[in-house]
Design goal:
InterPro entries: Kinase-like_dom_sf, Leu-rich_rpt, Leu-rich_rpt_typical-subtyp, LRR_dom_sf, LRR_domain-containing, Prot_kinase_dom, Protein_kinase_ATP_BS. This is Protein kinase domain-containing protein. Pfam families: LRR_8, Pkinase. There is one protein chain. By secondary structure, this protein is an alpha/beta fold. It folds into three domains: 152 residues, Leucine-rich repeat, LRR (right-handed beta-alpha superhelix); 82 residues, Phosphorylase Kinase, domain 1; 140 residues, Transferase(Phosphotransferase) domain 1 (Transferase(Phosphotransferase), domain 1), CATH 1.10.510.10. The protein contains seven helices and 19 strands. It has an eight-stranded parallel beta sheet. Helix 4 runs antiparallel to helix 7 and helix 5 packs antiparallel against helix 6.
Length: 425
């Protein structure tokens, strides 16, 4: 993190990355001294509500973070920033999204947790867009022009006021990760009936935090009979992916599968929702790392990470079986990634994190089939990503590459079904 005093002392001359958190209510003009070098600007967690007209002089700026400020509109000056490809306005008060207020080359747009009721009719001009986060707004419909956004790979639409999802959304040729739980037509009103017990939080002694995600915090805990378990406590009424109640319901609806993290009970109290899960053995580690700013939608791996074709086959087979099980229970996962998957030294997989899961019950048969093919594309991406860690040159590698390409076909009808994919593997 940087400070304005560093500017004034000349320490930041030529900086490419800048982060300021100083309760700013006005844009610091000192930033314009970096016009020829600045590529990433993070002014999140301040009190800004607008940008000056001179902002476009930041001609090298690629990524702009303005989350958790006081904006009620998207400043039109952004459209004049020639290099800008990423904009984040999470957790503001935006109601106004005007036509042509963003650069046409934008690839990554984060508008989670605002008050947007309508996207501009011209939204389809953003044809380079790859990643779009709109969860937690007030959208009742999507503009038909959005069907022109053929490069969209990840879309978050949960916790809005959509009354339906149109077929064209499921027909976007590169769409891979889609979430739309918690809308008017599919929002959970109560917990799904389950054979699992509803346990009071007082039944568990919380020991320490062992994990944290967008929707909640996972604790090592002990039951009344001293059994170690993992307790996930949801943070609040809404998360970056949607409502906790929808996530819990998808977990309960999924029932059991050998490769799903086992749910033992749930917690439903007036002020707290939670899940009690089987504690994962310490031999399991994350299969991969989350996407970076550069990879946008694709996972990353440690430089010393290597998976053999035998391991990749085993992982892919288990993941296909798991995803097929979810779809048999009318659930899409929405976030099929290596970083959401755990694996042990014997290539046994455990899969979880239902934050972006969606109950598909309210969809038509056609839309459910399309949703399955969207997740087949995600499995193809997973296989392709894992192959980047493989140092072998063999027929098995070529076979896996061929399968991945089939799964990722932009002609959706040519992708294999989950059943056919299981046979190919």
């Amino acid at each position: 993190m940087n400070t304005l005093s560093q500017f004034r002392s000349g320490q930041l001359l030529g900086a490419k990355h800048l982060q300021l958190v100083e309760a700013l209510s006005h844009f610091p003009e000192e930033i314009f001294t970096l016009a020829d070098t600045l590529e990433v600007l993070d002014l999140s967690n301040n009190n800004l509500s607008d940008l000056p007209d001179e902002f476009a002089c930041l001609t090298k700026l690629k990524r702009l973070f303005l989350s958790f400020n006081q904006f009620n509109h998207i400043p039109k000056i952004l459209a004049k920033c020639p290099a800008l490809i990423m904009v984040a306005f999470k957790g503001n008060y935006i109601t106004e999204f005007a036509d042509h207020c963003l650069p046409k080359a934008i690839e990554w747009l984060i508008l989670t947790d605002n008050k947007i009721a309508k996207l501009p009719a011209t939204f389809g001009q953003y044809t380079a867009l790859k990643k779009l986060a709109l969860a937690g707004n007030q959208l009742s419909e999507l503009p038909i022009s959005m069907a022109n956004c053929h490069n969209l790979k990840l879309i978050r639409l949960s916790a809005n006021q959509l009354t339906q999802i149109d077929d064209w959304l499921f027909e976007l040729p590169k769409l891979t990760w889609l979430a739309f739980a918690g809308n008017c037509f599919n929002k959970s009103q109560c917990l799904t009936q389950s054979n699992l017990a509803n346990r009071p939080l007082a039944d568990y002694s919380l020991s320490k935090v062992i994990g944290q995600g967008a929707s909640g915090i996972i604790h090592l805990a002990y039951s009344t009979n001293k059994e170690p378990v993992a307790v996930k406590l949801f943070k609040g009424t809404i998360t970056s992916d949607g409502y906790p109640l929808d996530e819990v319901n998808c977990c309960l609806q999924a029932l059991e599968h050998p490769n799903l993290i086992k749910v033992l009970a749930y917690i439903e109290q007036q002020q707290q929702l939670g899940l009690v899960m089987e504690l994962i053995d310490s031999s399991f580690t994350n299969l991969g790392l989350p996407p970076s700013l550069d990879t946008c939608t694709r996972d990353t791996f440690e430089s010393d990470c290597h998976y053999s074709t035998q391991v990749i086959y085993a992982i892919a087979q288990q993941m296909v079986s798991t995803v097929a099980h979810l779809h048999q229970h009318n659930i899409s996962h929405g976030d099929i990634y290596a970083h959401n998957t755990m694996v042990d030294p014997h290539a046994r997989v455990l899969f979880g994190d239902f934050g972006a899961a969606t109950d598909l019950t309210m969809l038509s048969d056609y839309q459910r089939q399309q949703m399955q093919l969207i997740e087949v594309r995600a499995l193809g991406c997973l296989i392709e990503d894992l192959l980047t860690t493989c140092q072998e040159q063999s027929a098995e590698v070529m076979h896996l590459q061929h399968i991945a390409q089939q799964c990722m076909s932009e002609n959706i009808a040519q992708r294999p079904t989950l059943s056919a994919l299981a046979d190919f593997l």
